[in-house]
């Protein structure tokens, strides 16, 4: 291969011949042929991929793993029972349905999940989102969502509800029946969305829900949850508001009804909150000494149930209680297609939130314990945890951080612990559920409020996040504020839009600097940031720390022109109008005043120096689109009209390929054309520019 003289000092790279590429049709045919090929080995691999438990169960180590799995499963099961009963308040459903959900979710994720430590089940944020949809549909059907348990209630809406049921074709279906039908329809659709996302390999989509967005969403949703539980803590009857401003409207209703608070519920709430918060603080401080976390919620619920039963709080003081919780399982039922049409849009944010939390938690625990998970399989697992249980009167589930941390701390090794947890829930379903009949709803609200401590404490991270990244802090605050002031769905949408705008803003105005040489080395750095750097005479080295595409091409040119002091486009046009074809030499300087990359254009100010070449450091340039290619074409043309050489250095393979396809290298698409314009280092490009300038100077002196 013939090498140009100006590059004879550097190493020679010989390009490999690229393999023959198949067309799109051939590629699709090959993939379809592989996927449709049937064999015993392929069927076995497919089953193991869909049900990872069939693979890792064969290598299960009884001596090493069984004790930890049984212990963590028992602890999680003990925690699940009170949380399941409590979270039914958020979803606006009866406690039995929360127990069903916890049971089926643990079994299905045991078979299909790829994470060893994640606990999948009821999650407060999802319960809130389900509850908001259930309340809305109950109102539209003529029911009163505030009638959520035994206690004082009004029956003024009974006739309207019956008429609405007849119109919807749901005869012999009361409030609780209609509520669970709405929840199962919503859950089935959310699960179908998640399964389709897994089949289409869209696990990467959850990565666009950034951690600041998820933290802000959790904070805003926690404030909404806290607001929704205040009526249970105070024992007052207020309407369950819907739509934008629900939190503010609820607070106003609570202030107007504060004088009607149930004294029994208020005292019970105060005692339970004090005990739970004190126990949580003690557990946090002594967590290194405690091998097993204290089952505080279960102990409080048992004591409160016993006190309520013996003191007859419901009969004597009108305190709202959980009511009758049946045992056993109900017959499966297909979710109502008519209701599925009504909640189809509501299932979209539910599916995305559940997927994002589940995948992020699975990846977090996988990194901390040195194993890998498959995001697409996690989508399938969580989706099936919603699709299949929806036929058994269950509602939406996902991974939960608090229970997953407890699971890890108590020695969990595999998902066999989920089977143990499901067995504990099954015991409650078959025998122990009726014992919680007299449990006050204010106690369940206390359990929910205390579980929000972790999410509410995230507000303390905002100052540090602001110092690290103001854009991420803005996303956090905007997401949380929109969740509180408007709605959780609007908060999620605002967070996603702001995250995308933040990403676009960072690439639209990236940092642009001129580089200078570090002593006698072959390395170059920012001349403004570091002292003692040596500028190359006659050569301007420009670095643009971002991709070059349609949104930032104008900023690219403004930055380059202002830093070099020459508006090449304007000067080339002016010389063309004058009819002057003279290049730039020492007698015709083109260097101007440095106006900074933010100025609109450069002003031509004659100085003592001049430059004959511009080298663009393309190392930070991730990609190049058609607009960016046109910008480089115009830039080379304008610089060429002024006698200035434009060279590119450190181009990535993607940028080199784009330049080659766009014809930037000329008609000769071989290695010689590329080596004459593209360089593997800034220093080699600078040396080539100096060598070419000396050759032209020598030729001019000869003439």
TrEMBL record:
It comes from the Eukaryota. InterPro entries: S04_transporter_CS (IPR018045), SLC26A/SulP_dom (IPR011547), SLC26A/SulP_fam (IPR001902), STAS_dom (IPR002645), STAS_dom_sf (IPR036513). Residues 574-598 are annotated as: Disordered. This is Sulfate anion transporter 1. It comes from Equus przewalskii (Przewalski's horse). PROSITE patterns: SLC26A, STAS. It is found in: Membrane. The keyword rRNA-binding does not apply.
